[in-house]
From TrEMBL:
This is Bifunctional diguanylate cyclase/phosphodiesterase. Keywords: Membrane, Transmembrane, Transmembrane helix. The keyword NAD does not apply. The chain holds residues 468 to 748 of 753 of the full protein. The keyword Cell inner membrane does not apply. It comes from the Bacteria. Residues 23-279 form the EAL domain.
Length: 281
């Protein structure tokens, strides 16, 4: 992982061991930031691979730091995960995302079918109040559960498969959709994948980077596309930056795409403008 270039970021670097004092300071900083509304949510387009039209957006959190500027998740998610503040922070992101989708829908008829994806952290996924939080966020936003997709990584599922299965089924009963994030980077076995109530597989960017030039990556992505078909799960390729990558993935049969080619994480107003766009690249 890359180090932040500035000294001020060092205390958020999860690869550095922190003193007890530094940890306490970071916790206090994050708590202060939550109380003072310093976090923001940006939304990145997810498009249909064939029509290139917007089908969903992924909520990605940022910290508008009063001194250090706009910080990406790398600077604070691991710390928040370690000290537990990820639970209230994640709840805040979830509520923001649901409320924002309801707002787009109220403002624009084109947003009727739009969905929103929200990332869950390991700690949030294990948190006993998760299902109630999700249900409350949907109810308070007046949003139907099927419009929300929760993204969970393979490692979170594999840490305790029985517990994960139970949580996934409870979320499924609410009606929300579930996605496996960063697929291919973890160690999920096929036999477990089959048992999990998952709707979407998100293929990690590392398989996309060279898919237009590397036959091995084509074979791997092709295998995941087949897996998705066999298990009736939709596939999304992440980190698409070029036409060549898009063309290759579309030909393989990947259903949806996400990446700078279609749009970077953006403010809600910019997403509203994309809703009426014919295509996104
Ligand atoms: P992720 O869930 O895999 O999200 C995709 C990341 O890839 C985002 O980085 C996005 O900006 C970036 N990305 C998308 N398309 C491209 C592309 O074409 N090229 C390149 N180079 N990058 C692309 P971001 O926003 O910095 O988020 C990083 C990670 O932080 C996320 O990875 C996710 O694991 C975590 N994260 C972000 N928001 C949240 C949140 O609200 N809760 C939790 N628990 N984690 C979050
Ligand atoms: Ca994600
Ligand atoms: Ca991902
Ligand atoms: Ca190779």
């Amino acid at each position: 992982a890359k180090r932040g270039g500035r000294n001020a970021y060092a205390i958020f670097d999860p690869t550095m061991s922190m003193s007890v004092l530094e940890e306490a300071q970071q916790r206090a900083d994050l708590e202060h930031a939550l109380e003072h509304d310093e976090f923001r949510v940006l939304y990145q387009p997810v498009v249909d691979m064939h029509t290139q039209r917007l089908t969903a957006v992924e909520a990605l959190v940022r910290w508008q730091h009063p001194r250090d500027g706009l910080l990406g998740p790398y600077h604070f998610i691991a710390g928040a995960e370690a000290n537990g503040l990820i639970v209230p922070l994640g709840r805040w992101v979830l509520r923001q995302a649901c409320a924002q989708l309801a707002r787009w829908r109220a403002e624009r008829p084109e947003a009727a079918g739009l969905k929103v994806n929200v990332n869950l952290s390991a700690r949030q996924f294990q948190y006993a109040g998760l299902v109630d939080d999700v249900s409350a966020a949907l109810a308070d936003a007046g949003l139907d559960a099927a419009s929300l997709t929760l993204e969970i990584t393979e490692s979170m599922l594999m840490a305790d498969i029985e517990a994960a299965k139970e949580t996934l089924h409870a979320l499924r009963r609410l009606g929300v959709r579930l996605a496996i994030d960063d697929f291919g980077t973890g160690y999920s076995s096929l036999s477990y994948l089959k048992q999990l109530p998952v709707d979407v597989i998100k293929i990690d960017k590392t398989f996309v980077d060279e898919v237009h030039i590397d036959e091995d990556d084509v074979a791997l992505v092709d295998a995941v596309a087949g897996l998705g078909q066999a298990l009736k799960m939709q596939t999304v390729a992440e980190g698409i930056e070029t036409d060549e990558q898009w063309e290759t993935l579309r030909r393989i049969g990947i259903d949806h795409g996400q990446g700078y080619l279609f749009g970077r994480p953006a403010e809600p107003a910019d997403i509203a403008a994309l809703l009426s766009a014919e295509t996104l690249s």
